[in-house]
Write a structure and sequence with these properties.
Elements lengths: L3 H24 L9 E3 L3 E5 L12 E7 L5 E10 L6 E5 L8 E5 L7 E3 L4 E7 L8 E10 L2 E2 H10 L1
Parallel strand pairs: 1-3
Antiparallel strand pairs: 2-9, 3-8, 4-7, 4-9, 5-6, 5-8, 9-10
Length: 159
């Protein structure tokens, strides 16, 4: 025969487990990939909304990357796939879409590396009303005179 204390203890553990399982399923925080934003870290990641799942239709996203004055920005393309000729990712060498355009890309053709000539880079992504694709994964790094900005940031903080 199973002792009564063991049964009560097991039942209490089961109820506690079920309570937390219910609580987490009701109030868990889900962090979707944002459609745009302002990025000020010396390095970071930009993902298409929903990545790694395909992005949605009717998107109009904008990201602004800003690093310290005197630094530039390098984008490394990890993955890129959009609907060819309809959904595009545009790069502007400045703070907004009025800056010189570095390129507009769709489909699967994009340079592996893209470099700004200023300390700001503005990206826009638009998708149309139908057909989506896998999207994109970009990594950016602030650079100074051809060297990674992390060295620059360490040096500036020492001054």
């Amino acid at each position: 025969m199973i002792p009564k204390q063991f049964i009560l203890s097991s039942l209490k553990s089961l109820l506690t487990y079920l309570f937390f399982l219910f609580f987490l399923s009701q109030y868990a925080v889900f962090c979707p990939v944002p459609c745009g934003g302002v990025l000020i870290e010396r390095r970071g990641t930009i993902l298409s909304p929903g990545y790694p799942e395909p992005y949605s239709n009717y998107l109009n996203c904008a990201w602004r990357i800003s690093v310290p004055e005197g630094a530039g920005i390098q984008i490394q393309v990890v993955t890129f796939a959009t609907e060819h000729n309809w959904d595009s990712l545009d790069f502007f060498d400045g703070v907004d879409s009025n800056a010189p355009r570095l390129g507009s890309y769709s489909g699967t053709t994009i340079p592996q590396l893209l470099n700004s000539t200023s300390n700001n880079l503005y990206l826009t992504f638009q998708s149309d009303i139908s057909v989506s694709a896998a999207g994109f994964h970009l990594e950016y790094t602030g650079m100074r005179d051809g060297m990674f900005a992390s060295f620059y940031f360490v040096f500036v903080r020492l001054l």
